[in-house]
Each structure stands twice: as structure tokens, then as C-alpha cells.
Write a structure and sequence with these properties.
Layout (H helix, E strand, L loop, with lengths): L15 E2 L11 E8 L12 E8 L7 E3 L2 E8 L7 E3 L2 E8 L7 E3 L2 E8 L7 E3 L2 E11 L4 E3 L2 E11 L4 E3 L11 E2 L4 E2 L11 H10 L9
Parallel strand pairs: 1-2, 2-3, 3-5, 4-6, 5-7, 6-8, 7-9, 8-10, 9-11, 10-12, 11-13, 12-14, 13-15, 14-16
């Protein structure tokens, strides 16, 4: 079955440069704009609605977003360290060269999203639907996946070492280009995962099998 092309943000050729001081706090709607080298004020985090926007070198560190919407958005060289997103929506979004360390996604919908060349160690993804998501050249060491529902979740050169997968089925997930050293997962959720021969040996040990070395 041919994979669906992951859609990229649909942005106009020219975005209007603005600052966050131009945004109405009571109705935080960002549309067809470019923001650069700022820190997002905490006052704009509640029910933030963003469409056709590029954030470039913006700090969102430590902010909490609830019921936010991001559609056709690019995050470039942004700092989202420790950010929390709950009951939020991401559609046609790209994170590139971003710091996502300790980011917390809970009960979100993530659809047609690309994460490229990012630092996402200690990320926490909880009860979040992942549909048509690509993660490329990204580190996600010691990340935590809990009750996830990945559909068409693509991994290319991703460091998932020491990550924990709880109540998350890996059926259909291609892990061949991921570093899985030290991964923790309930063996019940392994069937259907696509792995290399060496990764299969790692998972076999999780099942309690003894594989003697050929010395």
C-alpha cells in the first residue's frame, strides 16, 4: 500500500512581519504573519489560534497551551523546551531545527506534521493521535510514549534510546532507522513492528529469550 504524502504547511509567498505586541490578548488569532526573535507572552497561550504563520527563532519555553490550534505553521529554530500542549490541534505543521527538550503533548491531534533536525530528548507524548507524522534526524532519548495511537508514523535517523512505550501498540511502525538501545516496552505490544535483524535480537531479549553469542 502506497504511503500518503505528508502535507507541508500552505503558506503565502509573502508573510507580514509583526510582533506579539500587535496581537489582541482577548482574541489571540495569528494569520499570515511572520514573527522573529521574540518571546511569546504568557497572555497569548489560552486558546491560541494560528493559521499560515512562520515562527522564526521564537521562545515558547515553559509555556502551557490548552485548546490551541496550529494549522499551516512553520517553527524554525524555536525554543519549545518544557512546553505543554493539551487538547490542541496541529495540522500541516513543520518543526525544523527546534529545541523540543521535555515537550509535553497530551490528548492532542497531530496530523501531517514533520519534525526535522530537532532536539526532543525527554519528550512526553500521552494519549495523542499521530497521523501522517515524520520525524527525521532528531534525538528523542528517554522519551515517554503513553497510550499513543500512531498511524503512519515515520522515523528516519531518530535516536529513541532509553525511551519508554506504555500501552502503545507498535503494529505497522517501521523502526529500522531508529536507535532502540535500552528501549522499554511491554512485549504484548510488539507484534507487527518492522525491525532489523539486530533490533529483533534486542526485542527477543525483552521476551526473555536467551541468545548465546558465537565465540
Amino acid at each position: 500500500m502506497k504511503k500518503q504524502i505528508i502535507q507541508l504547511p500552505e503558506l503565502p509567498h509573502q508573510l507580514t512581519p509583526e510582533t506579539f505586541a500587535d496581537v489582541e490578548i482577548d482574541d489571540p488569532y495569528l494569520y499570515q504573519t511572520l514573527y522573529e526573535k521574540e518571546t511569546l507572552p504568557i497572555e497569548l497561550t489560552e486558546r491560541l489560534d494560528v493559521n499560515q504563520v512562520c515562527f522564526r527563532n521564537i521562545s515558547f519555553a515553559g509555556l502551557v497551551f490548552e485548546r490551541a490550534s496550529f494549522e499551516n505553521v512553520r517553527f524554525e529554530q524555536c525554543d519549545l523546551t518544557g512546553c505543554q500542549f493539551q487538547d490542541s490541534r496541529f495540522h500541516r505543521v513543520v518543526f525544523e531545527d527546534c529545541r523540543l527538550t521535555g515537550i509535553h503533548f497530551e490528548s492532542n491531534t497531530v496530523d501531517h506534521v514533520t519534525i526535522k533536525n530537532c532536539q526532543a530528548n525527554y519528550a512526553q507524548l500521552i494519549r495523542t493521535a499521530l497521523r501522517h507524522v515524520a520525524v527525521e534526524q532528531t534525538t528523542m532519548r528517554e522519551s515517554h510514549f503513553f497510550e499513543m495511537k500512531p498511524t503512519d508514523f515515520r522515523l528516519h535517523e531518530v535516536d529513541l534510546s532509553e525511551s519508554q512505550w506504555v500501552e502503545t501498540a507498535l503494529k505497522g511502525l517501521d523502526l529500522r532507522q531508529a536507535d532502540l538501545s535500552g528501549i522499554t516496552i511491554d512485549p504484548r505490544f510488539l507484534p507487527g513492528a518492522i525491525v532489523t535483524e539486530s533490533q529483533a535480537i534486542t526485542f527477543a531479549r525483552l521476551l526473555g529469550l536467551v541468545i548465546p553469542s558465537h565465540d
